[in-house]
Write a structure and sequence with these properties.
36% helix; alpha/beta; two-stranded antiparallel sheet; 212 residues; single chain; 16% strand
Length: 212
């Protein structure tokens, strides 16, 4: 087989390593059926030529997490990849449920995304699910809610709920803006479902399109 022309070898590996659907970094019991690809990454271990030709094909797939709720571990899945494989990642699609306490982790996820210097396509889909109990949605709907903070031992002061929402929104937008501006190789960026400030989301997309 190694005597075949390089183009033929690449075509064969493309059938074994390229998926039309997003490829998850970590499979679990909740992985959607259409994410369960039939790829054969073991082909990379056949020989050095297969590894050299096949790794860009495998890591050139659109990568994702298995479900919106497991996006919280996306940074860990990225960090588990070797540095040379991270350099081959070009497309990522993330679904994030804002009501699953993921925002507290998203700045770290954004940092790992920002280190993918070859990333050309980034799609982030915000799932604004409602959650009660252990989950904590970022939107503050009760005007009577407030946040108590300590003022360096000088006593307690109360921040109104509106202030909490404004501070959170400002932080979110800062993380998104720095992420997009830092990805110089990016060619496609979409931020879907960001209902907290749709004009900001469209502005980020336009900023990216305008700098091509």
């Amino acid at each position: 087989m190694l005597r075949l022309p390089l183009k033929v070898i690449k075509d064969i590996l493309r059938h074994l390593l390229v998926s039309p659907n997003p490829l998850i970094l970590h499979r679990d019991a909740y992985t959607p059926a259409n994410y369960r690809s039939q790829l054969q990454p073991s082909m990379l271990r056949v020989c050095q030529l297969f590894n050299h030709v096949g790794r860009p094909l495998l890591y050139g797939n659109t990568l994702t997490s298995s479900t919106p709720s497991t996006s919280i571990n996306f940074d860990a899945h990225i960090s588990n990849l070797s540095g040379r494989n991270r350099l081959l990642i070009t497309k990522i699609r993330l679904e994030i449920d804002w009501a699953e306490q993921l925002w507290s982790k998203f700045p770290l996820i954004a940092r790992y995304l920002g280190e993918l210097k070859s990333l050309k396509e980034l799609r982030i889909v915000i799932i604004n699910g409602e959650k009660s109990g252990n989950g904590a949605a970022l939107m503050v709907n009760d005007p009577n809610q407030s946040l108590t903070i300590m003022n360096h031992g000088a006593g307690k002061c109360m921040l109104p709920a509106l202030t909490i929402a404004e501070i959170t929104l400002k932080t979110e937008k800062k993380v998104f803006k720095e992420l997009v501006e830092g990805l110089k190789a990016l060619r496609v960026f979409r931020l879907e479902g960001y209902t907290r400030d749709e004009a900001f989301a469209r502005g980020l997309e336009e900023f990216h399109n305008g700098r091509k």
